[in-house]
Amino acid sequence: MTALHELTITQAGQRLRSGRVRATELAEAAIARAERVDQTVHAFIRVTAERALADAARADAELAAGRDRGPLHGIPYALKDIYDSKDLPTTCHSALTAGHLAAEDSEVERRMKRAGGVLLGKLATHEFALGGPSTDLPYPCARNPWDLERFTGGSSSGCAAALASALVPLAWGSDTSGSIRTPACFCGVVGLKPTFGLVSRRGVFPLSYSLDHCGPMSRTVADAALALEAVAGHDPLDPASARVLARDYTSRLTEGVENRRIGYFRRWLVDTPNVSPAVIERVDHAVEILAANGAEIVEMTGPDLELLNACGRIIMSAESFAIHEDNIRNRPLDFGRYSYQRIAPGASLSAADLILSQRVRRELVRRMEQCLAGLDAAIAATAPSTAPLLSAFWDDWEPASLSHTIGFDVTGHPALAMPVGLTPERLPVGIQVIGHLFDEASVFSIAASLESFLADDMVPSPMTSL
C-alpha cells in the first residue's frame, strides 16, 4: 500500500472522498516526515504545523458535511518564502526582510485557501529569488535529494527539494529566468511556468516586474494541472494580470500525441558549450519516444539563444536594481554575497539599455510565435547539464552561462519542465514542453503522454524511502 507521503494529489483526493484517510492524517504524516527528513534536506524555512492541523480539521469537517471545494481540498502544500500568507513571516531568505510579517494573503494563497488546501509551511529560496546557494544567509541552502552535495537549482530550491523528498505533493514557486524549471530539472520533478499574466503575482515579493511568473511544482503533470486550475485567472489588483478566465487543464491529459506536430529546439542544446552528452542522449530519446507514438517532430533553430539570454538578463538586472536600490546603497553588507553581486551591476545600466531591451523583446516574441506557428507545442532541454556539485561554486558569483529557460520568460510562453530519465550517475535530466500563449492545456496533454511513455525511466529520489 502506498505510503501517505508518496500519494499524488489525485490519489490522496480519492482516499479523502472514500473515507479511507482524513486530511488530518495527511497533515500529521507530512509534519512528522518534515521533522524527520528536513533536517537533512533543509527544504523548509518554517513548518507551520499549527496552521496545517487547523486547515486539515476544517477540510475534514467540510468534507464530512458534504462541502467539497475541489481536487485540492485537504491536500498539503507549501509556499516559496516570497509568497505572503497572512500573519506569517515572509523572509525572502534574507536578513533584510527576516522580520517582515505578512498583513494579507498573496492572491495565490487566497485562492489556495478557497480551494481547501492545507498549508504545511514556507520553503527555502535563494535570497530575494536571485542570489545562489550562499552560506552567508540566515537559513541553510536547500539540498538536492538525489545527491546532498549537489545544487538544487534556483531559486525555487526548497520547492524542488521538498517535492523530490516527498515532503509535500504541491509547492508554489516563481520563475523569472528559470527559477521553477531549473530546480525541477535538477531534482527530477515537474514545474510549470505559465503564460505571463495567467497567475496573479500580487503579494509575492518581486524580482523583475516584467519577467516574474508564479507557478505550481509537483511530482506529476496531472497534479500541476489540478493546481493551475485552482489559481489561474484574472486578478484586477495585479496590473500585469491577463484578462482571461481559468480553463479546463485536465480533461485532455489522456489524449495522446498521435498526429501532433511538435517542434524540437535541438540546435540550442547541441550547440551549447560544455553540453553533457548524457543530457543530449536523454532528451533525444524523449523526442524519439514521442515520434514512435505518432507525433510529427519538426526540428527548429528558433530565435537566437544568446539574444534571448542577453535581453532577459538586461531587463532582470535593471528591474531588480530598481527594486533593491535603497538597500543596495544603504545596507549593502546585509545582503548575501551572491545576491549583492548580481543586483549591484544594475546601477550601471541606462534607461536606453532597458528601453532597447524591451524593444528587442517585442521582436523576440514575434519570432517565437513564428516558430510555433502550425505546431501543437515544442520541446527544448531545460539545462545542458545535470546538477553541479555545490563545491563547484566560486566564492564570487560565476559568470552567467547560457540559459535554456530565460527565453520563455522573455516571450511569456508557457513552459513545463519535467524529468525524462537519469544519467548513468543517476542524476535527473529534464526537458521543457512549450506551448502557445495561454494554451497550457496542450502543454499538459503532451507532457502527460510523455510522462506515461517514460514511466519506467524514472524512479523516486533516494530520500523518498526515508
TrEMBL record:
<dbReference type="InterPro" id="IPR000120">
    <property type="entry name" value="Amidase"/>
</dbReference>
<protein>
    <submittedName>
        <fullName>Amidase</fullName>
    </submittedName>
</protein>
<dbReference type="Pfam" id="PF01425">
    <property type="entry name" value="Amidase"/>
</dbReference>
<dbReference type="InterPro" id="IPR036928">
    <property type="entry name" value="AS_sf"/>
</dbReference>
<feature type="domain" description="Amidase">
    <location>
        <begin position="25"/>
        <end position="443"/>
    </location>
</feature>
<dbReference type="InterPro" id="IPR023631">
    <property type="entry name" value="Amidase_dom"/>
</dbReference>
